[in-house]
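Incident review: delayed structure delivery

Summary: a single-chain prediction request sat in the queue longer than the usual turnaround. Root cause was a stuck worker, restarted by the on-call engineer. No data loss occurred. The affected request and its eventual output are reproduced below so the record is complete for anyone auditing the incident later.

Affected input:
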Amino acid sequence: MNEKQWIEYKARSKHWNVRISFDLLHSKAYQDLSNGPALKVLNWFHEKIRLHIIKRKRGKNDYQIIDGDISFTYREAIFRGLSSQQFSKALRELHVFGFIDIEKPGSALKGDWTQFTVSDRWKEYGNPNFKNKEFPRSVHWINFGFGGKKKRKKLRYEKSHLA
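Output delivered after worker restart:
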């Protein structure tokens, strides 16, 4: 997301409403969140949830959440006013308390960002049957195997002395 896309997104989403359930607001997991940016990021994740409106008679509507992967990049967090360290800490805290799950870890390559899903594990937080998932390790180390500065320097040295 570049700056132009961010400005378009802000203009498009100006009249949106964010729905957070009463159960979530008064849950033990929500009360135990200690990091201020984690609360902001949680609200931004709820902004990204897609809803399908099921229309009924006389103006009563039901909402159904469309399950899907949510992408939230560090660049977007910076546009929203968080540093990369704040965003990283917020993601870890939201994962520990069960608000989000990481569907596919990204590799820090262009176009390969982390895919998240909004989880319901927070409902069991504080109970003995709470499923604590491990935060996946970053896979950006893959990029370092394709050659670095030292490797290129060594190859140049070998080419020049072998010729």
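Verification: Residues 3-162 form one domain.
Action items: add queue-age alerting; document worker restart procedure.
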